[in-house]
Amino acid sequence: MEQRGLARLRLPGLLALLAALAARTPRVSASGDLNLWPLPVSLKTTPRLFYLSPGNFFFGHSPTSKAGPSCAVLQEAFRRYYDYIFGFYKWHHGHNKIPSEMELQKLEVSVIMDPECDSFPSITSDESYTLLVKGPVATLTANRVWGVLRGLETFSQLIYQDSYGTFTANESNIVDSPRFPHRGILIDTSRHFLPVKTILKTLDAMAFNKFNVLHWHIVDDQSFPYQSISFPELSNKGSYSLSHVYTPNDVRTVIEYARLRGIRVLPEFDSPGHTESWGKGQKDLLTPCYHAREPSGTFGPINPILNSTYSFLSKLFKEISTVFPDEFIHLGGDEVNFNCWVLDMISTMKKRSIVWQEVYDDEGKLLPGTVVQVWKMGDFYKELENITAAGFPVIISAPWYLDVINYGQDWRQYYSVKPLNFAGTPEQKQLVIGGEACIWGEYVDATNLTPRLWPRASAVGERLWSPQEVTDLDDAYRRLTRHRCRMVRRGIAAQPLFTGYCEHEGRM
Amino acid sequence: MEQRGLGRLRLPGLLALLAGLVVQAALGTRRTQTPRLSASRDLNLWPLPLSVMTTPRLLYLSPRNDFFGHSPTSKAGPSCAVLQEAFRRYYDYIFGFYKWPLGSDNIPREMELQKLEVSVIMDPECDSFPSITSDESYTLLVKGPVATLTANRVWGVLRGLETFSQLIYQDSYGTFTANESNIVDSPRFPHRGILIDTSRHFLPVKTILKTLDAMAFNKFNVLHWHIVDDQSFPYQSISFPELSNKGSYSLSHVYTPNDVHTVIEYARLRGIRILPEFDSPGHTASWGKGQEDLLTPCYHAREPSGTFGPINPILNSTYSFLSKLFKEISTVFPDEFIHLGGDEVNFNCWKSNPAVLRFMRNKRFGKIEKLQSFYMQMVLDMISAMKKRSIVWQEVYDDEGELTPGTVVQVWKKQNFPMKLSQVTAAGFPVILSAPWYLDLISYGEDWRQYYSVKPLNFAGTPEQKQLVIGGEACIWGEYVDATNLTPRLWPRASAVGERLWSHQEVTDLDDAYRRLTRHRCRMVGRGIAAQPLFTGYCEHEGGM
């Protein structure tokens, strides 16, 4: 019997006890040997093998589950995971040769509390789950659908094909929940436009790595692809071209696709700097710069002294707060007084704000509860210490700027980051709500986003999900190599970690 | 009128003269009419030709089936597969990726470019393979109603078709447009290569073919195929099938004889040579799996340690194996050259083996490098006997000066490579430069600028020495590269090397290069190559990515 990670059980002890009793045979199959990514909190496997037949396996709802076939999040997930498990193989096996006592016929899903089938995931969503893999019926139990989604991913990662091609899983018992509630990927659709299909692919890959926030840095100096209902001229004039826009329908598609995977879409409308493209479609919004007492013809940040600025922003953010269901809006920001005003405005819309660290650094009075995102690499631990001491929640990105590329296995340095390794009280540590891997767009578009992001972001994914004791680089390399091949098999062009090959890389 | 590059003509003077006259005539009549150079037209050529003259006069094209044709005086005709295939390809590149077909009825006849007529002056070499001496020069005269592309051989036609396709753009109404122009062009260096590594990671044939497409867009003419190495042996040998049966990553990670043939022919049709590298005596761990007794057993404390080192240079069986293998390779790959590797040999294993040491004593080899020389000389002689020429990595030269004359030395070590170029050429050996162009070494930002700024002939030496620099190669080693990331990592960074090796040495303006390369990259994207962006911005036709 093998145990990984921490046995920090949050589920009823009875389940664990049952699994422990089930351990009989002394050998662990090598290929079944733990290819999980990110590693769960507690994992026990036995050498006992169960076999699955694509024609005789199904996902189902437990009779006692609070969720049923009307729950779209689960029905969609069942179909998806059936494909991930069985769909990419060329041959199907009859199930007649599997002795019934060795067959795993069903994964029964049970949601204990209000399933939240029609809700959007949030920062407080419960993603914990318990997975008991045994024959003939395995069980996946969670408080909410969000935990079921995470558990389905884990379940799919437990199944492998033995050397005869039979789908196989070891008897196992898994209890799991995330270390941090905010686990994000930042994409930048202003420096380069990313087609919707590329964003959806990214959401797929995020789900494979248990990320739960897509931080959508949607506009910036270079272009304004967000098509606003209130201010259509912003994208008409500010986008690269009319084919480089996100229509309201596109945005809805992204939000719903993400929701079905338990992923929040966090919109960022960065201001007052980084707004050059805004000025093209909104007159008098930007500050005219002067040179030698004359207007120089160039424009700076948003003009903070005009009433028109604030009525514009109020209307725009009102729209944004309606279009994007998430509780948070990211305001970017680097000028304090201005941001105070915007922060107040957002709070009147019953939303919470996230800002980049400058807003805190410049010593403005932030509204309590404003989240500060730390991105500057120089002594970011000190910054974490300061911000949490002031009582603000933080998101860490500083060590995870994945657009900054290097030769070799830089995933190791992302993996080795210790997010809580700063001086502070336990209460301060609690204020670190998570982190984000950022793939800024200066040198990234649809041609290279996917291989540049994956599997490097996977290292961040495990750091944010798994217990802090999970730090073994050799084991991580072994698991991540296989996890990367799994992503490739599922259609994600994740680049290699090092020399070698994947069995199912033919689709690339 | 605009002139770029140098008028260092290598074509028969008559052609150039004719072309010049025609353009002057055209200018005389047109200059006053259209004084403005269309902005989008302004030279998006990559790599920049030797001489480009354009006038503001615009010509309009419509997609007609007989757009490309052979001149009645051409030595090549419809039976020339290289050209027929190229006509179809370039028709697609020019017209094929746009959604609406345009009628030709709305184009005034005097403004129409109806046809590109191709003329090959000498034996066209339609059924030959390109070689290091292939003539790639061409002259392109774009005028209405018939443009002409003239070259000595089909290889020049291929390069000229690429240039022609780069001259055509769609105006704001979607009409295919070209400026009247006159281009005379030929390459600066005859060897312009991309090195791919299919051992560290297997690259599917379709990925290799994509790479060949992109190479043609950048006028590269050599695919250096580092086909096997320590990690895997994907080359399926007819004589020694066990090499790939045991040495490949899996049976689906092999290149069958048919695959190899496909790659060679696909490359030939694009005027690209396939240069196979079978690197030895180091980098051969995968060879040992399918060929018993080939590798040197290493010793530890006078006992065999169970590990193996480089190829065992003291056994007769080694040389009979190599002779048979290279015989096969020299037949399978038509190129005049075979790359023998010879780099990074770890001598420790040889030094540990008592039999090797005994052999060295008997041969009176003072130092271990002598053994490496002995081995390489045996292989070099083998290759000469097969009427092929050899290319080796620089260590083979470093370890011993007495190489077979004519052996080409590839310089890859970055540190002080101009000094190495100076030494090798002073000794009279031709060289290929790769040292500054290891594209697998990635970093943040626009590293293409440093590749672009390399001056290959910037070393101490006589004009004769400079002549010995036959070209260079951009290398994308495979440790961190496979089919998932090869294309965006290679392009457009390799394009910078492409222009450095094709265009005149005075073409060095980084701003102009940035402008042209940005558009060239978009052109590649439009043609299905996932070339990554240089910096912020967008391409009009990037929807296919």
TrEMBL record, chain A:
Residues 36-158 form the Beta-hexosaminidase eukaryotic type N-terminal domain. Its EC number is 3.2.1.52. The keyword Hydrolase applies. Its main location: cytoplasm. Pfam families: Glyco_hydro_20, Glycohydro_20b2. The active site is at E335. It is found in: Cytoplasmic vesicle, Secretory vesicle, Cortical granule; Lysosome. Keywords: Cytoplasmic vesicle, Disulfide bond, Glycoprotein, Glycosidase, Hydrolase, Lipid metabolism, Lysosome, Signal. GO terms for molecular function: beta-N-acetylhexosaminidase activity. It catalyses: Hydrolysis of terminal non-reducing N-acetyl-D-hexosamine residues in N-acetyl-beta-D-hexosaminides; N-acetyl-beta-D-galactosaminyl-(1->4)-beta-D-3-sulfogalactosyl-(1->4)-beta-D-glucosyl-(1<->1')-ceramide + H2O = a beta-D-3-sulfogalactosyl-(1->4)-beta-D-glucosyl-(1<->1')-ceramide + N-acetyl-beta-D-galactosamine; beta-D-GalNAc-(1->4)-alpha-L-IdoA-(1->3)-beta-D-GalNAc-4-sulfate-(1->4)-alpha-L-IdoA-(1->3)-D-GalNAc-4-sulfate + H2O = alpha-L-IdoA-(1->3)-beta-D-GalNAc-4-sulfate-(1->4)-alpha-L-IdoA-(1->3)-D-GalNAc-4-sulfate + N-acetyl-D-galactosamine; N-acetyl-beta-D-6-sulfogalactosaminyl-(1->4)-alpha-L-iduronyl-(1->3)-N-acetyl-D-6-sulfogalactosamine + H2O = alpha-L-iduronyl-(1->3)-N-acetyl-D-6-sulfogalactosamine + N-acetyl-D-6-sulfogalactosamine. Disulfide bonds join C71-C117, C289-C340, C485-C502. PANTHER family: BETA-HEXOSAMINIDASE (PTHR22600), BETA-HEXOSAMINIDASE SUBUNIT BETA (PTHR22600:SF38). There are 3 forms of beta-hexosaminidase: hexosaminidase A is a heterodimer composed of one subunit alpha and one subunit beta (chain A and B); hexosaminidase B is a homodimer of two beta subunits (two chains A and B); hexosaminidase S is a homodimer of two alpha subunits. The composition of the dimer (isozyme A versus isozyme S) has a significant effect on the substrate specificity of the alpha subunit active site. Belongs to the glycosyl hydrolase 20 family. This is Beta-hexosaminidase. It comes from Bos taurus. The lineage of its organism: Eukaryota, Metazoa, Chordata, Craniata, Vertebrata.
Automatic annotation (TrEMBL), chain B:
The active site is at E344. One of its GO terms (cellular component) is cortical granule. Residues 189-504 form the Glycoside hydrolase family 20 catalytic domain. One of its GO terms (biological process) is carbohydrate metabolic process. Its EC number is 3.2.1.52. CDD domains: GH20_HexA_HexB-like (cd06562). Belongs to the glycosyl hydrolase 20 family. This is Beta-hexosaminidase. It comes from Bos taurus (Bovine). The gene is LOC786974.
